[in-house]
């Protein structure tokens, strides 16, 4: 179950964790999951994962022995990883295609307090975020 959580097919953003640097990772388990099982799987998975040097033990583990209704056990994995850079770049490209053509812009500009500058500021924030993740990937462990 924990191995599946790290599989690309079970992720919201299909970006292999092994291709980037992990800044932090949380495993939130419910049901019949023991701490020893979680620790054993973390030790096994560590070989394929690269953490940033300043947070090599950046794991957060949450255990709740009450399972979800109709489910014996479950796990939620949250990871802050630089491998999301590719998805963020695609988001930027798709945004720029639509923004250049001013597609759907009128829907947002009709709302009070929304201005074109907000879109430009958000785009700049996205560009800075992409650059920060690229800088993290350059760090040698």
UniProtKB/TrEMBL annotation:
<keyword id="KW-0342">GTP-binding</keyword>
<keyword id="KW-0493">Microtubule</keyword>
<dbReference type="InterPro" id="IPR037103">
    <property type="entry name" value="Tubulin/FtsZ-like_C"/>
</dbReference>
<comment type="similarity">
    <text>Belongs to the tubulin family.</text>
</comment>
<dbReference type="InterPro" id="IPR004057">
    <property type="entry name" value="Epsilon_tubulin"/>
</dbReference>
<keyword id="KW-0547">Nucleotide-binding</keyword>
<dbReference type="InterPro" id="IPR008280">
    <property type="entry name" value="Tub_FtsZ_C"/>
</dbReference>
<dbReference type="GO" id="GO:0007017">
    <property type="term" value="P:microtubule-based process"/>
</dbReference>
<dbReference type="GO" id="GO:0005525">
    <property type="term" value="F:GTP binding"/>
</dbReference>
<dbReference type="InterPro" id="IPR018316">
    <property type="entry name" value="Tubulin/FtsZ_2-layer-sand-dom"/>
</dbReference>
<dbReference type="GO" id="GO:0005874">
    <property type="term" value="C:microtubule"/>
</dbReference>
<protein>
    <submittedName>
        <fullName>Tubulin epsilon chain</fullName>
    </submittedName>
</protein>
<feature type="domain" description="Tubulin/FtsZ 2-layer sandwich">
    <location>
        <begin position="2"/>
        <end position="86"/>
    </location>
</feature>
<dbReference type="Pfam" id="PF03953">
    <property type="entry name" value="Tubulin_C"/>
</dbReference>
<dbReference type="InterPro" id="IPR000217">
    <property type="entry name" value="Tubulin"/>
</dbReference>
<dbReference type="InterPro" id="IPR023123">
    <property type="entry name" value="Tubulin_C"/>
</dbReference>
């Amino acid at each position: 179950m924990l191995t599946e959580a790290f599989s690309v097919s079970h992720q919201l953003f299909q970006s292999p964790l092994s291709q980037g640097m992990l800044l932090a990772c949380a495993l939130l388990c419910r049901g019949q999951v023991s701490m020893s099982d979680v620790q054993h799987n973390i030790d096994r998975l560590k070989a394929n994962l690269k953490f940033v040097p300043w947070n090599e033990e950046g794991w957060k583990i949450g255990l709740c022995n009450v399972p979800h209704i109709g489910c014996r056990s479950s796990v939620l994995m949250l990871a802050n990883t630089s491998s999301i850079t590719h998805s963020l770049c695609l988001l930027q490209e798709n945004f720029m295609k639509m923004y250049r053509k001013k597609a759907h812009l009128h829907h947002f500009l009709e709302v009070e307090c929304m201005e074109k500058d907000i879109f430009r500021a958000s785009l700049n924030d996205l560009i800075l975020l992409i650059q920060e993740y690229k800088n993290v990937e350059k760090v040698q462990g």
